[in-house]
Amino acid sequence: MLERNLAMIALFAALIGALAFVPALTLLNGVPISAQSMGIMLAGAVLGPKRGALAVLLFLALVALGLPLLSGGRGGLGVFMGPTIGYLVAFPIGAFVTGWIAGQFRAPMSLPAVLTGALISGVVIVNFIGALGMWWKLETSFIGALAMTTPFLLGDIIKAVLTAVITAAVAQARPSLIKQRA
């Protein structure tokens, strides 16, 4: 069972890294847009809170080692000193909370369970903590930092819906995953 857990954690860490390049869009202000945050939500929803958070921590360790796995092809210790530090701190929390909330429902991994978890953690919590990081690093007002997150909210909501649909489909195709969430 340990080998299976490690394989799933590694698989989701790789998925999170790969989703940084889907789609490869950059806003006019230079901010890259990707599906990476959906990978964070999927890790928590499919793997459960603990393994989901561990997958994100493994991903962040690879980023810290210098692999260019963040949106825009960024990596290295420097990204942990920049204005996106709040998002990086929030990623494992988001995965954990998504998995925990989804597991509290009578039908874990169902569309409503995952959508609730993904919206609360993947949209609200991650963007709130991300705004805290921008507030700190950019020395702006907190309201100004929160305002910087608003262009991403619609995309994050769409990613939360996709996470719920994908997870519900995976749960239906592989019901054994529900029993293995931890």
TrEMBL record:
Transmembrane segments: 6-31, 52-71, 77-101, 113-136, 142-171
InterPro entries in UniProt: BioY
GO CC annotations on file: plasma membrane
Gene3D superfamilies according to UniProt: 1.10.1760.20
Example of a GO MF term: biotin transmembrane transporter activity
Compartment annotation: Cell membrane
Stretches assigned to coiled coil: none
Entry superkingdom: Bacteria
Keywords: Cell membrane, Membrane, Transmembrane, Transmembrane helix, Transport
UniProt membrane topology term: Multi-pass membrane protein
Protein family according to the UniProt entry: Belongs to the BioY family.
Name of this chain's protein: Biotin transporter
Organism of this sequence: Ketogulonicigenium vulgare (strain WSH-001)
Source organism phylogeny: Bacteria, Pseudomonadati, Pseudomonadota, Alphaproteobacteria, Rhodobacterales
